[in-house]
Amino acid sequence: MPDPNQMILATFIHNSGAHPGGWRWPGAPAVDQHDFAHFAHLAQTAERGKMHCYFSGDSQGFPSISGKDAFAATDYAGKLEPTTLLAALAVVTKHIGLIATASTTYNEPYAIARRFASLDHISKGRAGWNVVTSASDGEARNFGRDLNMDHDARYARAEEFVDVAKNLWDSWEDGAILRDRDAARYFDPAKVHELGHKGEHFSVAGPLNVARPPQGHPIIVQAGGSGPGRALAARTADMIFTAASSVEVAKEFRDDMRARAAAFGRNPDHVKIIPSVQLMVRASEAEARRADEELLDLVPEALALRTLSLQLGVDLSHLSVNDRLPDLPETNGGKWVQQSIIRMAREEDLPIGLLARRVVVSRASFSYTGTPEQVADLCENWFRAGAADGFSLSPNYQPGVLEDFVDQVIPILQKRGLFRAEYEGDTLRENLGLPRPENAFVANPALGCEPRMWA
Amino acid sequence: MPDPNQMILATFIHNSGAHPGGWRWPGAPAVDQHDFAHFAHLAQTAERGKMHCYFSGDSQGFPSISGKDAFAATDYAGKLEPTTLLAALAVVTKHIGLIATASTTYNEPYAIARRFASLDHISKGRAGWNVVTSASDGEARNFGRDLNMDHDARYARAEEFVDVAKNLWDSWEDGAILRDRDAARYFDPAKVHELGHKGEHFSVAGPLNVARPPQGHPIIVQAGGSGPGRALAARTADMIFTAASSVEVAKEFRDDMRARAAAFGRNPDHVKIIPSVQLMVRASEAEARRADEELLDLVPEALALRTLSLQLGVDLSHLSVNDRLPDLPETNGGKWVQQSIIRMAREEDLPIGLLARRVVVSRASFSYTGTPEQVADLCENWFRAGAADGFSLSPNYQPGVLEDFVDQVIPILQKRGLFRAEYEGDTLRENLGLPRPENAFVANPALGCEPRMWA
Predict the structure, then answer these.
(1) CATH number of the domain bearing residue A194
(2) Which of B100, B190, B286, B312 sits in a 20 to 30 Å window from A53, CA-based?
(3) Distance from B257 to chain A by nearest Cα, in Å?
């Protein structure tokens, strides 16, 4: 059983690094983001540090090629699809959790439930699903739409999607598979259930054609910051990733999410709030400041401005870098990031050029470069302030920053008693201190429908 | 370069075995079909035998739980999802091709193109996609429909789906990724293309967000036997799996497919026709006959009858085992299997009970148990008769039959010069002797559309 006084540590998968200048960092090796060996090394490094999980963000589109020359300066030239990548990583790791992003807007619940059940079986209980609703029109255009589905409609669909997926995972009860050769009974049909789900967005018969995952349900992760996003997370998520620009913002968010979870009748301790920290580690304060500057200088101004436009979902190309951000229309994209950026611009009265330089580094999340002790202090302060159950590290460049964190920061956290020395359990769920969910069909025998005759 | 006088050898993935009695075979270990180690052992065994590919069939549904007691006698209690399973298998193998089934009816081309591109990168050029259109209503009911899409509509959708997937794979040209740190150019935007595809079934902007796969395109596999199925395969497939009840049927099919491929302007030698053979290997003829009988006796009659009904897509429960098959209505399912079964019933005037026992063993494909020499003779005869470019083995139980084939039959084929002693190339495509496809955007610069501004 994990010690509740110890923090959770996750790390984001990035191609060459979270920082857009990271791939140009002279000290870092050139990373081929289609080479599995790169990701295997990162996952094994995080596991060496006893970290909880390795997380792959995702989108089902390319940001834009209209800003060709600007975007050609980023390493975003594709990435491996998360469920296939993490299935392969399951083979080269033993303990670390493997969390893949998949959209509820451009997928079907049967297919997603099946892939994550598979990943959970292959990894022997280490899978997690980061539920996203796909904020960009670029993704919509790859799936038969000109514009993205409306924000609230996406979340209504996501609510039903997650419920259907959970019931599909429960459609084979634990112990349904018998393999009784003498009785010619491979499975016990009484423990296999049809859903007969007919909802507003989905109609799904079931049962799933994969046995119940080792964790019961793979870990559900969510990162929505809007009202509907928070409601979905509070009701369904085991872990919530968030981008917080300060310890105050993080604490406010965590308090809100815990209260919302309690309002859904859940134990707030079973919802882990994990802000992301974009990171570098340096031997001294002076070196840290220099590294920040040098890295930012590797980002062309045109890329910074394009990125700002993309994050806001608004074309800013008619403005000069010295202008202030105009009032912006409500958009259909990811609201949390937009609002954080707008707040930053207003509070500090930043001209667009400076705002762009700020946003291009870390979007809305906290960015920090410091000595190992300073980074450990930051983590300890946020954790003790009740602003975080743990952190998701976004290394500015790879694999150096993750190696630095594992080799230099984690030992300090361990010495302070804030991080474990060994994995406590076998599954991700156990290592997060989360209970294995009860089977919905066992809890409620009236769930589902009578088996129907096939035609 | 592979020797054109040598055959291709593939093997099907089955949970415990292709034969429905296989899981009860007393000599075989109990197989946990959710345990990755089982499949890793099989893939490594096939690779030890220098076999070309390991193939995972699939459906996105459970056959039926209305016939609960009958189906509880099969080992079909779920299976791991193929793309995740094969990604994991890529890590524990080096040479063997990895072919996963995915449906064009219940998927979107962007998502499928991306997963298979990922699998091709992770495996360094060993991925294949078996294109299926999903024949069962059971699958339809998991994806929002009461009945399956009409047969011809499924194939019209599949034609467009495969074309879009291929163009997505081409949307990043070879060499598009530069990683030029000094010039701040990670990629060359001139080598990245939007599709702007607007077709009858799909609207897909592109580009894909994965670089061009190592093979250019993963191998396309098809197995449709109907008119539209053959047309799709002849136009788009690199390899065609087929179920043929005799060498004559196989030859007729191969001749037809080669002629159809030529009519599409393709080199018929670039379409590999691979019948499946359901197999056991025994030391003597007498032991072979006894094994066939003993294995069939492990299949309850009720399961055989249910399976026959399922394969025909018609409820036969009102008939007796001594009745003959009545005239059947045209159904919406997989036509090739249905027609093969009906032909078998008529030609041999089989009563339903016997027909069911025949069908439950191997559906429409060729089933054979013999000595190593006899199995080698069978392969040689079909190959020399021009009935097959190779074979896909369906072992009756696992892992024993695959081990027997690799250890006892392959050495004979090698001695006869009919099978290679070592892998010739690095990618599946090279090992099959297939050319790497030209990039459609390079061949036709007018393809695609002008990049659009994102909103």
Answers:
(1) 3.20.20.30
(2) B100
(3) 32
Q: Quote the domain boundaries for residue B18.
A: 8-299+365-443
B325: in domain: no
Chain B residues with CB under 8 Å of A69 CB are 189
Q: Can you tell me the ipTM of this complex?
A: 0.94
Q: Using the beta-carbon criterion (under 8 Å), do B137 and A73 form an inter-chain contact?
A: no
Task: Give the CA angle between residues A165, A167, A173 to the nearest 5°.
Answer: 125
Q: Which residues pair with B240 in a beta bridge?
A: B222, B273
Nearest to B209 among A79, A83, A189 (CB): A79
- Render pLDDT for B25-68 as a digit per residue (tens, 0 to 9): 998 888 999 999 999 999 999 999 999 999 998 888 886 655 55
- Which residue type sits at A139? E
Sorted by sequence, the CB contacts under 8 Å of residue A106 that are 6+ apart come out as: A60, A134, A139, A142, A143, B108, B110, B111
Q: How many domains does chain A have?
A: 1
CB atoms within 10 A of CB A350: 18
* Residue of A59, A79, A84 to mutate when probing chain B, most B C-beta within 10 A: A84
pLDDT in tens, B112-151: 999 999 999 999 999 999 999 987 778 888 998 877 788 8
**Residue A7, token pair as written in the block:** 């923090």
Each as own residue / partner, the long-range contacts of residues A320-326 (CB below 8 Å, 24 or more positions apart, any chain) are A320/A352, A321/A351, A321/A352, A321/A353, A321/A356, A322/A351, A322/A352, A322/A353, A323/A351, A323/A352, A324/A349, A324/A350, A324/A351, A324/A352, A325/A350, A325/A352, A325/A355
Q: Which 41-60 residues of chain A touch chain B by CB within 8 A?
A: 59-60
Which of B 279-318 lie inside 8 A of A, CB atoms?
A: 298, 300, 310, 313, 315
Locate B173 and state its tokens: 């040209």
Give the helix/strand (H/E) hosting B246: none
